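job 3f2a | input accepted
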Amino acid sequence: MQEIKAPRWRVARWERRLLTALATAFCAELFFSIWVDNFRVSASVVLYPVLLVTLMQDSQGAGTGALTALMVLLVRVVVGTLQGGSPLEAAAQEYSGALFYLCYELLLSLLVRDRRRAPLHVLGRSFFLCDLCSNILDLSLSKGGAPELESLGWLCALALGRAVLAVLGLWAMRRYRRLLLEEEHERRYQRLFLMTANLKNELYFLKKDTEHIEGVMTRAYQLYEELVGGSASPELPQLALSIARDVHEVKKDNLSIIRGIEREVAGAYDQESIRMSDLLHILEDSTYDFLREQKLDIQLECWCGEDFNTGEHYRLMSILKNLVTNAAEAIQGQDDRGSQGLILVDIRRQGDLLALTVRDNGPGLSERAMQNLFRVGYSTKFDPETGNINRGVGLAAVQFMVEELGGSIQVDSDKGAQFRVYVPIARVQKGEKP
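job 3f2a | predicted structure (434 res):
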């Protein structure tokens, strides 16, 4: 279990000490009396140890206890005076109850040397002993003698009950903080996972660009050789050779970038497997972040009919994310949308194949778009205000990754667009190479 680190307090210790004293003093006024006159049972004795272990966990002495005792006595004297009593009489009557808090922290400092890392069972035992001893002191001073055996039994039961409540409060706080840490860890994992998936997606095209660059360089050198043996002007062969050299330099830079990215993402969760349901959960979170940023009124619904561990999580995430983003952008570009945008993602098994379906209620695809969907550079996304056009690699990336997985992709356009991806389930279930 990950250790919960102590918070780095930005508030000064004296401010935290004053806050502890004030909160305890006012909470001490919520009480009822039992056994003897002026012996109070209040909620403050549950709150006080919790504050000592949280707000004042870096305290080693009894300074907080002394200030709390003074504040409790001051509040009780003020309340007694307002009720018509004498301040001196109120102080004489209430000082034993105020000393309870001084005795409590003094004993706690002796029993627990490090409040930051003390386990709950140690704190619970210490709370019980501090409560019991401090109550004995309070009752002895208020009665003028040691408490009777029957009273000791009640004090033990009272101390045990309040110690259990204080420990339960601390457990709840630690559990809540652990949940926050786990949630933050999950968010960081999702961001890293999506970043790595996006980088690997871009690597596919960088590698394909390298192949194109290699072809351009080869043709430029062939042109140089033909010009050298022909009757062309002497400047033309040199120009062709210069182009070949320049293209070669571009190729080297491109390969350097590819190797750099591959080093950064190499081994990042490659050996791990992810449940398909968890993959869809990450897809939903990232998609809704995108929809909020773009201020799009679109609902995403995901259904996982076949849940299993997959080692091809990066490719599957890239495929689904590109298709969902493409659907959202298509709905965004719809001029007169009379209803809320809707994107449906469905994963199910069909024989030996895993079928991934992404369907939207957007404007659908034209016949020309259907013919050019998977061509690199083709895009229907054009912003008339900025003149920017989508670079048109998303669906081409989808086709490339689907083919790498040994699958196929089908497209329909009837009341929106529907993409069906079929991949061998044995290929993605364990991430095995075909």
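job 3f2a | The CA atoms of residues 235 and 283 lie 56 Å apart.
job 3f2a | closed
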